[in-house]
Amino acid sequence: MPETKKNKLKSLNGNLFILSAPSGAGKTTLCKALLEKFPDIVYSVSYTTRPPRGNEKHGKDYFFIEKAAFENKLKQDYWAEWANVHGHFYGTSREILDNYLAMGRDILLDIDVQGTRQILEYYPHSVTIFVMPPSLEALRIRLESRATDTVAVIERRLRDAEKEIEQRHIYRHLIMNDKLEEAVDILSGLVAGYRSRL
After folding, report:
1. If we measure between CA atoms, which residue out of 13, 189, 191 comes closest to residue 100?
2. DSSP code of 66?
3. In angstroms, rounded to a whole number, what is the distance separating the alpha carbons of residues 181 and 29?
4. Phi, psi (deg, nearest 5) at residue 27
5. Residue 113: how many CB atoms within 10 A of its CB?
6. Quick one: average pLDDT of 186-191?
7. What is the pTM of this model?
8. Rounded Cα distance, 109 and 46, in Å
C-alpha cells in the first residue's frame, strides 16, 4: 500500500504515555520496568525550583531552575503541566514534549492526576494509565512497610489516594498492581499495542 501524506505525518508522531498512581501503588517500579523493556522510550524529566537532594543530578532526576525563571516561563505558557507543591514549583516542558513527539519518539510521563488533567488540555490523545492498589488497606501496609513516613504523613497520603482513585475515570486504562510481575506484563502489553499502531 503506498504511503500517503496522512500516513507519513502519522508516522512522525510519537505516543505520549501518562502513568499515574497513588503514593505507594508501585508507579515508580512500573516505570522502571517499562523503560527496561522499551529503552528507546523517552522518560520525561520534570523541572523543579526545589534544591537537589542527595545524589540527584541536573538533567537526570530533575532540571533544577530558579523560581523567577520558572514563573517567567509560566507567563510564556511554557509548561504543559505544573504545580506548586509545598512552596516549590514543578513542571513539564511543552517544548521538550513537542520536539520528541515530532521526531516520532514515544514519551513516558510519571505525573499525578492534577498534572494529567493539564496535559490532556494540550495533548488530548495521550495514552493515560492509572495504577490501582489492590485496596486502601493494602496501600496502608505498603506505606507503613517503607518505614520512611510518620503516621500523620501516611494518613495524609491515604486521604490523597482516595481522592485520586475517585478521579480514575479520566484515564483510558486501569491496571491493578496486586502482583507486580502481572502488572508489568499488562502495562508492557498495553504500551506495545499502542506502539505497533504507528
Report:
1. 13
2. -
3. 11
4. -60, -45
5. 20
6. 96
7. 0.84
8. 9
- Which residue's entry shows cell 517544548? 95
* Residue 84 CA neighbour count, 13 Å, CB half: 5
pLDDT above 80: residue 136: yes
- CA 12, CA 173: separation in Å to the nearest integer? 24
Contact 143, 24 (CB under 8 A): yes
> Interior CA angle at 69 toward 22 and 76, to 5°?
85
Which residues span the domain enclosing 108?
5-195
Q: What are the tens digits of pLDDT across the range 155-188? A: 888 888 889 999 999 999 999 998 989 999 999 9
CATH number, domain of 106, equals 3.40.50.300
Instruction: Give 138-158 pLDDT, tens digit per residue.
Output: 888 888 887 777 888 888 888
CA 189 to chain centre: 18
Place of cell 509560566: 74
The number of CA neighbours under 13 Å toward the Cβ of 76 is: 10
At 19, the amino acid letter reads L
pLDDT cut 90: percent of the chain above it: 61
Domain count, the chain: 1
